[in-house]
Amino acid sequence: MNCRICGHDAEPFMSFGKMPIANGFLSPDQYDDEYFFELAPIFCINCSTFQLLEQPDPKMMFHDEYAFFSRTSKNMAKHFTEFAQSVMDGYLDDVSPLVVEVGSNDGILLDNFAKAGIRHVGVEPSGNVAEVARKHGVNTVTAFFDEDLVADVVSEYGQADALIAANVMCHIPDIHAVVQAAEKLLKPKGVFIFEDPYLGSMIEKVSYDQIYDEHVYIFSASSVANIFIHHGFELIDVVPQVTHGGSMRYVLARKGARDVSEVVAKQIETEHALGLHKRETYDQFRLNCEESRESLIRLLKEKRAEGASVVGYAATSKSTTVLNYCGIGPDLIDYISDTTPMKQGKFSPGTHIPVKDHDTFKSDYPDYAVLFAWNHEKEILANETLFMQSGGSWIVFVPCVSVRTE
Ligand code: TMP
Ligand code: ZN
Is the pLDDT of residue 73 over 90? Predict the structure, then answer.
């Protein structure tokens, strides 16, 4: 296939096999019609962009029953307050600034601007999450972010100081169209600030579960610089984040409009040292994924053979890749505990493990819980001290498969 960014030839370096929609939690009467696609990542040697070979139609992933609500984690709320503050401190005009967010979800990030009395517009294609944002007083339109939408926003509110996005840009296959629309939206000194899971962290931690249908790209500073340069934008700052198991915040401005921080060149050098530009790095990553899979299956089978009860903790989108790639079904995991009502009573995509509420977990602790929300490890372990006190252990698989008893 050709690279989505630059058109250069790029072949997949591995396949995770047939995958269902990561957030496609379903009921047994839907099993026969379950949709699968081949989950295979590609690395383009020309523009350094890590991407998916095939991506399901966005309408299959983002719709009115989209099950993901950002407001579920307290740590994420704190993180977004800090994100908003950094935008307010560094990039807004003194007079009547405007902030626009692409994929504003339930308004968790824009909330901070709303509370500060800053003009803002959230753009969110999933009707049900957009509705939650509106209930919280966040000005939100239910739409995909494109040039038509930008024309409407500009005619109603004028141009924006900042376009922001969190865990959204990596979802959008036609990123060039978004940057073109951004170009029309932003004031001459306007900035585009977005953050997404970071390729360097994924490669280092073998956190292959970042790879699923919605993540059509896993960015690095090098790839973001290459993508935006086509549109006259340059990368002026990068800020590493601990969220989602290792993310990066990118700040872009029109070339020459703002100073470029020296950390940009340093980050690109670090990526070179990590080998992020080389095919061999991805061949090694494939081997690391295979090893991780074997260890996890071995451990779960061992615990089952001992007669232990094993459940999953948090039916995350990431868990769909792990469960399907490793072939882990209800024979190895009794159920997955999850706090999102929309997932409860349903079954995990592809592997059909029941999803139950958190009370089920608390009322009868299992021997082991597989920590699918490993990126929230600190928060979860602090909340679940009783589980460990009653003899329970965690099974983690990032950065390596291991059992944790404290
Ligand atoms: P994701 O953002 O990694 O896809 O995961 C979000 C899912 O994890 C969501 O369904 C809620 C669930 N979850 C729990 O059930 N318990 C928790 O403590 C956390 C942090 C998440
Ligand atoms: Zn390319």
Answer: no
Q: What is the pTM of this model?
A: 0.95
Task: Give the closest residue to 111 by CA, choosing from 59, 66, 164, 35.
Answer: 164
For 73-93, letters b (16+ CB in 10 Å) and e give beebeebbeebbeebbeebbe
Nearest CA to ligand 1 atom 4: 316
Question: 136 CA distance to ligand 1 centroid (A)?
Answer: 21
Distance CA 377, CA 357 (A): 19
Ligand in nearest proximity to the CA of 23 = 1
CA of 395 to the centre of ligand 2 (A): 37
Q: Which ligand is nearest to the CA of 369?
A: 1
Identify the pLDDT of residue 374.
96
CB of 373 within 6 A of ligand 1: the answer is yes
Residue 193 Cα to ligand 2 midpoint, Å, equals: 22
pLDDT recorded at residue 75: 82
DSSP 76-130: HHHHHHHHHHHHHHHH--SSS-EEEEES-TTSTTHHHHHHTT-EEEEE-S-HHHH
Dist. CA 88–CA 193, nearest whole Å: 12
| Section 277-300 average pLDDT | 97
